[in-house]
Amino acid sequence: MKSNLGSFSKNVAKFSIATWVSFAISLISAPISTRIYSPDSLGRINLFYTYSSMLMSLAYLGLDQAYVRFYNELDDKKAKDSLFSFCLFISILTVLLLSLVAFVFHDKVSTEIVGEKGFRFVFLLAISATTGILSRYLSLFYRMQIDGKWYTIQAVIDILFVKFSYLVSGYFNSSYQSAILVMVISRFVVICSFYLFQKKRFNFIIDNVNKEFSRDIIKFALPLVPITFLSWANSSVSQIVLKNMLGYSDLGIYSIAVSLASTVNIVQAGFNVYWAPYVYNNYKSEKNIFNQVHQYMIFLLLLISLLIIFCQDPIFIILGEKYRNAKLFFPFLLFSPICYTVAETTGLGINISKKTFWNLIIFSINIVVNIVGCFFLIPAFGVSGAAMASCISSMLYIVLKTIIGEKYYRSIESYRYIIYLLLILSVSALVNYFGYEKIELKYMAFIIISILYAYLFRKEIRSMFRFLHKDT
């Protein structure tokens, strides 16, 4: 059991390298970008990429997840290449068709996204979504082959070029128009270069996908389309409502806080990359390890969250002055990435049993709660209200996904660790919000919370020290 857990941890670490590097790049670029770009410009840039993600979520047609699901059921390399080509080509064709529809209504689409009419933004949106799909399938290709080296190289070069071009563009021209243009074109060039330089690895054929197998793929994938779209909507609705209620400037401040909250992804990303193929390969034989993964994932995510909350003052002081008030609601935004990651360890039964309609129901409920929360909380608390609404819907998500997932496949022994997670994060966020101007009392409360955390996770802390001592 220990050796299996160790092997799992090493593979997760291998796929986490890209996230650590990306985190470092983002940490360096954030203080610069918040001094170059105004909150209004960052709000428009952020909303452009939000809608680009929406276009991608529809264009996948669930085939990106189908590729992961059916990859290990094929033994022949040609069949796997055909599966890759089949899923990629249909997704690209779909995004091009959706882009044509957007072109017809280009003035309305452009006005909704950046607040001004123009064909160019819709054209850039189409390129951005197409590039995103190419990047997604490329990373899945490396991921399914457990090729951590090229997965990392692709991810690091991708973000390095985009961030560099983003900052250089801002130095010469701090308009959002220039930033969007440079970022979209630079990423398109980088991703296409990967396909060209590694073209020997890709055998773009569809002959080996027979009609019966293609029907199975489509049957699995199509029900995921509304789920994927609702997943996007659930993570983006607060930003769209915020823009419509308060404007682009407040959205820019909110988006910076969201990007800083995503620092917990240093654990999440590597885990999510490796977790899906691991589950599908081992859910019949390695069931006991899932409970351990669940416990240690909560332990690590909470540890990183508490460290971030403790260090938020020096983190926010290096940002541009207009963005610093975001630390008032920042801890509420930690709920989303954490709850979604932990739910991957408790809601396994939904996908394993192929009862994916539950995902549709869960996301639908969450979106309604998020929207209602925004309309009630934003007028009362301003930008903080959007963060609170996101927090409430994230807690509801993990509760629903855990209860329903465990009904079909028991992966955890008890709900105790989830209670620890929600309790500690909720108290930390509330202390930060209501003790915003009472620095001494706030940090005294954080110390008490940390002591409680150390007591509740004493077993995991001892195991971590034993593991570190063993490696030294």
Characterization of this structure:
The structure is a single chain. This protein is mainly α and 472 residues long. The protein contains 21 helices and no strands. The protein has helices spanning 2-36, 39-59, 63-71, 77-104, 106-114, 119-144, 148-172, 176-197, 211-221, 224-246, 248-261, 265-282, 287-310, 312-317, 335-346, 348-352, 357-381, 383-408, 416-434, 439-456, 458-471. It is globular, with a radius of gyration of 22 Å. The relative contact order is 0.11.
Helix-strand blueprint:
Elements: H1 2-36, H2 39-59, H3 63-71, H4 77-104, H5 106-114, H6 119-144, H7 148-172, H8 176-197, H9 211-221, H10 224-246, H11 248-261, H12 265-282, H13 287-310, H14 312-317, H15 335-346, H16 348-352, H17 357-381, H18 383-408, H19 416-434, H20 439-456, H21 458-471
Helix pairs in contact: 1-7, 1-12, 2-4, 2-6, 2-8, 2-10, 2-11, 3-4, 3-6, 3-9, 4-6, 6-7, 6-8, 7-8, 10-11, 10-17, 10-18, 12-15, 13-15, 13-19, 13-20, 15-18, 17-18, 19-20
Number of domains: 2
Large-scale geometry: globular
Total of helices = 21
Helix content estimate: over 70%
Helix/strand/pairing class, anyone?
Answer: mainly alpha
Give the H and E element order: HHHHHHHHHHHHHHHHHHHHH
The N- and C-terminal alpha carbons lie at a distance of 22 Å
**Oligomeric assembly:** single chain
- Would you count the extended β strands for me? 0
Strand content: under 5%
Which blocks of ≥5 consecutive residues have pLDDT under 50?
none
Largest sheet features: none
- What would the average pLDDT be, to the nearest integer? 84
User: Compute the gyration radius: what is it?
Assistant: 22 Å
